[in-house]
Design brief:
Blueprint lengths: L2 H15 L4 H25 L4 H5 L2 H14 L8 H11 L4 H8 L3 H26 L22 H18 L6 H21 L3 H18 L11 H12 L1 H16 L9 H18 L10 H8 L15 H9 L1 H19 L3 H20 L8 H19 L16
Helix pairs in contact: 1-2, 1-7, 2-6, 4-5, 4-16, 6-18, 7-8, 7-9, 7-18, 8-9, 8-10, 8-17, 10-11, 10-17, 11-12, 12-13, 13-14, 13-15, 15-16, 16-17, 17-18
Length: 414
């Protein structure tokens, strides 16, 4: 097996890992990083460049983001071990440029996409089997029997199912036959069923509504798209009325918000979040320029939280924007917004199916980051990074007419 095939095998393994347990994802990331470093060394020696890295913005913003977290080690107030661990958590963002380095041929990109989608279908079907009380030997999550999550939490898998539904729906237009087209539509519906019937995560419900809203928006003629702004609230009301888990979840959230008095109540998801967010805003106000460094959120929370707050040692505020703000100051929040904007810019340069799938995934990440520290968290953060990497690589290489096996495609041939 030559290096081109080995490189492609690594990319396929990464696509598959999005449907595997976190331990296997971690091993796969290590293999990917080493493969990308080796490929970069070969490219430098031969005077080649990776066209995608040169033309796309998001890889540069990712490198800048990881570098900023690394630099903040010099002023962090967190323990060294905690701070280094936090830098490592954001290192998962490097999956995106590394995949663009190793995934260099169109046929390999097609295979990676197929494997990625198969992994997501496997997760969705496994969740349905758990929902119908079928015991699965590979379902290792401690929430498998009661919450129907396969490898992670029901919160993570609800969001992942919504994104998988969107990707299947938008890429259906590229199906090679009517049969495959209909199959992808059916699987998209199955994945949405996961979101609204199987899982009870409220963020997943919001992401699912957003994915449907965007799909309807793009299906409408341009002259009717202004009317699409009424679609999300209509879908939200319909989901509240039509799906018991959605209604129960948001009614519980309303009750917890009403009961919040500045001190989180045990078992109150909303109450804890409000307390976390309040302390985070106070920390950012106290250190707006550079923040308090990577991994410092818990120290700041214990400093600014009310005296009677819970003593659980949460490592993040369940809000990615505030987490970046605490660690890097106001500039950190701006950096995260720029990262999201750069992903949007890059996806809009692709053909329409990949662009819509990618933009849907960016919207899902943005919504998730409002209620969770999605990029900081393991598994769900890895899932988003792998999703962006696969979609960017697939969409970028789909623009090429001929992709050499061992040479870099220049920007002119894109």
């Amino acid at each position: 097996m030559n290096w081109a095939n080995l490189r492609a095998a690594v990319a396929k393994l990464v696509g598959l890992s999005a449907g595997l347990p976190i331990a296997l994802i971690s091993i796969t990331k290590l293999v990917l990083f080493l493969s990308a470093l080796f490929e970069m060394a070969r490219g430098w020696r031969r005077g080649e460049r990776v066209a995608a890295l040169a033309e796309l913005w998001s890889p540069r913003i990712i490198l800048a983001s990881v570098l900023m977290f690394g630099l903040s080690l010099y002023w962090t107030i967190a323990d060294s071990a905690v701070a280094l661990g936090a830098v490592g958590k954001y290192g998962k963002l490097l999956i995106i440029p590394c995949m663009l380095i190793v995934m260099r041929e169109r046929r390999h990109a097609n295979q990676v996409m197929l494997i990625f989608l198969a992994a997501q279908v496997f997760l969705c079907l496994s969740a349905w089997l758990l929902y119908f009380h079928v015991r699965l030997p590979w379902a290792t999550s401690n929430m498998a029997q009661e919450k129907f999550a396969v490898f992670s939490s029901y919160l993570d898998q609800g969001i992942m199912s919504a994104v998988a539904a969107a990707v299947l729906w938008h890429l259906r237009t590229l199906a090679p036959s009517p049969v495959v087209h209909r199959l992808m539509v059916a699987l998209s519906v199955v994945a949405l069923g996961n979101v609204f019937l199987v899982f009870s995560g409220r963020t997943g419900h919001l992401v699912g509504i957003a994915m449907i809203s965007l799909a309807i928006f793009w299906q409408l003629p341009k002259r009717f798209r202004l009317a699409a702004f009424v679609i999300p609230p209509v879908l939200f009301i319909a989901a509240l009325a039509g799906f018991g888990k959605v209604g129960e979840g948001f009614e519980k959230a309303r009750q917890e918000m009403s009961a919040y008095s500045g001190t989180p109540t045990a078992g109150s998801s909303v109450g804890m979040r409000l307390s976390f967010w309040k302390a985070s805003v106070e920390s950012i106000a106290a250190h707006p320029a550079f923040g308090t460094g990577v991994g410092s959120w818990l120290v700041q929370y214990e400093k600014f939280a009310p005296p009677r707050s819970d003593k659980e040692r949460h490592g993040n505020p369940h809000q990615e924007f505030l987490l970046w703000g605490v660690q890097l100051g106001v500039g950190g929040i701006a950096l995260l917004l720029v990262l999201l904007a750069s992903l949007c810019r890059d996806f809009t340069r692709l053909e329409s199916a990949s662009a819509r799938a990618g933009l849907s995934a960016v919207a899902a990440l943005a919504i998730s980051c409002l209620f969770n520290s999605t990029l900081y968290d393991a598994y769900i953060g890895d899932f988003f990074c792998i999703t962006f990497a696969v979609l960017l690589g697939y969409g970028w290489l789909s623009r090429q007419t001929v992709v050499p096996a061992e040479t870099t495609v220049s920007a002119k041939s894109a």
